[in-house]
Design a protein that fits this description.
The protein contains twelve helices and twelve strands. Helix 1 packs across helix 3 (33-45). A six-stranded parallel β-sheet has the order 2-1-3-4-5-11, with helices on both faces. A six-stranded mixed β-sheet has the order 7-6-8-9-10-12, with helices on both faces. The radius of gyration is 26 Å and the shape is elongated. The chain is α/β, with parallel strands linked by helices and 334 residues long.
Length: 334
Amino acid sequence: MRIATLKDIASRAGVSITTVSNVVNGNYNRVSPSNVKRIQALIEECHYVPNQSARSLTNKSTNMIGIIIQSEYMTNSLTDSYVGEFVGSVVLHLQRLGYDSLIRMTNDYVDINRSLRKWNLAGAIFTGTYDRYIRDLAEDTRIPFIFTDSYSSSRRINNVGVDDFRGGVLAAEHLLKMGHRRIAFIAPGLHKSEVDEQRKNGFLSALGRFGLKENGDYLMPTSDSGMEMAEMLMDMSPPVTAAFVTADRAAIRLIDALKELGKRVPDDYSIVGFDNIELGQYATPPLTTVAQAIQRKAKVAVDILVRHIENPYAPPENILIDVSLLERGSVRRL
């Protein structure tokens, strides 16, 4: 006996396959009552049995969560130690709570929207700075979602971040305490990321309270190239003795490049990073850094999302996690 398909039911009912699918999946609000009644009768008459493997890709009850990672085209963002640790922590915590994960790396709104519609998820986590898309996502997305490190003014979103401004303050205060007065601020992509802007503002605020004026020549927007950062640092006039770098991965590259150019850290330059990725403790010398609790941040993001999956009418949550300074060997006292 031939097994009936969605196409068979649709043909006999004189409706589209999508209409039949909506009835099968209980989306009755998308189908007229008369069509719902007719399709249900045909399903029973034809002994139609839904394909469970197919339904598992579209039914929210499968507990599938999308993880959207900010990434340039065909770039593997998971090689970034911070992103890798955060996403890995998110996946593990989701698994503990009984959820599965689908990962997409993209920085294109059309691609994001297409993926969310195709997957029909229970919820989604956006890691990276998607602020320019937040309004559209809030209007187009009908599932609970949460952003990380967002500085959007929208009150309709869930977000978890860290106190980037305070991180900049801590970095500057530590270098000042160690006797440094000519300090560079190095941010790969400065003026593109609100996260880096907040870290810069905190950094400059601490310098200002200490009586030091902002020196625009010491603010360095650069690429991720360690050699480019090192050469710019060494070309500064008057010479600097220290630098605050807004990401550990960039700080470690800078240290390695300075070594190649015959300079020593911390003897010639003191360096402070941000994030506290695991690799920092194995750098030579070990990296002093502004530490954010990456695993805690991941857990908070998942917990907020799950609360909103379980209660879609819960008010938006915006959580800011504190940071701390972790002293190691990359800063010397003058």
